[in-house]
Amino acid sequence: MEAITLNSRKFDGSSTFGIEKEVQMSDSGDVNAEDLKRKLSQQNGSVVGIESGRETLIEIDKDGKGLGLSIVGGSDTVLGTVVIHEVYPDGAAAIDGRLKPGDQVLEVNGVSLRGVSHEQAILLLRRTPTKVSLLVYRDVNLQLSLLDPTQIYNIFEVELTKRSGRGLGLSIVGRKNEPGVYVSEVVKGGAAEADGRLIQGDQILAVNGRDVASSMQEDVAAKLKACTGRVVLKVGRWKLTETANKARSGADAKIQLSTPNDHQ
Prior knowledge:
Strand order of the largest sheet: 3-8-6-7
Helix content: 10-25%
Low-confidence stretches: 1-31, 40-45, 243-260
Order of helices and strands: EEHEEEHEEHEHHEEEHEEHEHE
Protein name: PDZ domain-containing protein
Domain PDZ: 57-140, 157-239
InterPro entries: PDZ, PDZ_scaffold, PDZ_sf
Oligomer: single chain
Mean pLDDT: 74
Pfam families: PDZ (PF00595)
Number of helices: 8
C-alpha cells in the first residue's frame, strides 16, 4: 500500500483530510460553476440542515483549517459509494456541525463522486478551496452500522512465537493524539509474516489478555517488547478493509498515521 506524505505527516493509504495542504482547483477543473451557483442559490443563503433520506447541498468554510474528515468507500470498494467515516474535532466540518459518520458524499464542488475510485475521491477532496460545497446523502441505517463495531469489525486472535533476539516481525503506529494502535507493516521474514494472518491496518485490541484497545502507541510498544515466547494478540479488522485487501486495492485504509512506527 503506497504511503502518502503531506506536510511531513505520513498517511498509510489514508483518506484523512484533517491537516491537508491547501491545493486550489484550477480554472480548467471539471466544476460546473453555474450549476453549483444555481444549487446554492436555492438555499437562499441559509444554513441548511441535513435530512435523512434526501440529497442535501451544503457549503463549509474551511477558514484556514482542514476539512477534518476521513472517508471510506469508492467505486473500487465493497461500499461502492464514498462515505464519511470520521469527523475530527478540530476540523472545519466539526465546527460546521452538520456532517456525521455515515453520510455519503455524492459531489464535491459540483464534481460527481458517483463511480469514482477511492483514490480519485481523495484527490478531489484535497483540491478544495476555502469554501467547499458538498452534496451529501444521509442514510440512517448506514450510520448505525458504522457505530456498531460488530457490524464493521471482525475480531480474532493470533498466536505468535517471539524468539530470543528477534521481534514479532511487525510495526505498529498510533493515531494523532488519540488512543488505538494499528499494524502499519508486516516485516518480511518475521513471525507475523510466517503466520500469515495479520495485515496492515489491523487494530491490536489486547496483548496476552491485557486490553490495549484504548492505549497509546508507546504503551502498546512497551508491552509487546516485554513479551517473550508465546504472544497472543487480539485483533480487530475492519470488514471493508479486509475486502479491499483481498482485492489488492488498499482502498479502505482509514488510519491516520502521525507518529513514527515502532518495530516489534
